[in-house]
Amino acid sequence: MHYSPLELWLLIGLLALVTLGARSFFVLLPRRWQPRGRVEQALRHAPLVALLAITVPEVTRQLPAAWQQPQPLWAVATDARLLSALVLVAVVRATRSTLWGLLAGIGTFLLAGPLRP
């Protein structure tokens, strides 16, 4: 499909409006219609759950193939994605700092990348 520049800008603008409306839906509701109780607590965890839904399949994608290798433990232990995810979780739990966890996970990913043949 080919769109003209005007159509592209219109499409981008409409997508931005839909995104803004979806993200601010609960803010724009009258006070008496806003979620309370368990729904409100569940909505606080929605961004984390969305992030996990994106990252967990990517981190664990190579595990079934790794277990089929001649040395499965080495294949799993040298998977840079899995190692960096485990380091990230450990550092966040130990320091209670997301920033340090992210930096440790990125560093581990960059250092462990060359381990894979």
Characterise this structure:
This protein is mainly alpha-helical and 117 residues long. It has 2 domains: 44 residues, no CATH class; 58 residues, no CATH class. Helix 7 packs antiparallel against helix 8. It is extended, with a radius of gyration of 21 Å.
Shape: extended
What's the structural domain tally? 2
Summed up, the helix count is: 8
On the 0-100 scale, what is the average pLDDT?
84
Q: Could you estimate the helical fraction of the residues in percent?
A: over 70%
Strand content: under 5%
Distance between the termini: 41 Å
Low-confidence runs: none
- Largest sheet, if any? none
The rounded Rg comes to 21 Å
* Helix-strand category: mainly alpha
Q: What is the total tally of β strands?
A: 0
**Order of SSEs:** HHHHHHHH
Organism: Pseudaquabacterium pictum
Keywords: Membrane, Transmembrane, Transmembrane helix
Protein name: Branched-chain amino acid transporter
Transmembrane segments: 6-30, 99-115
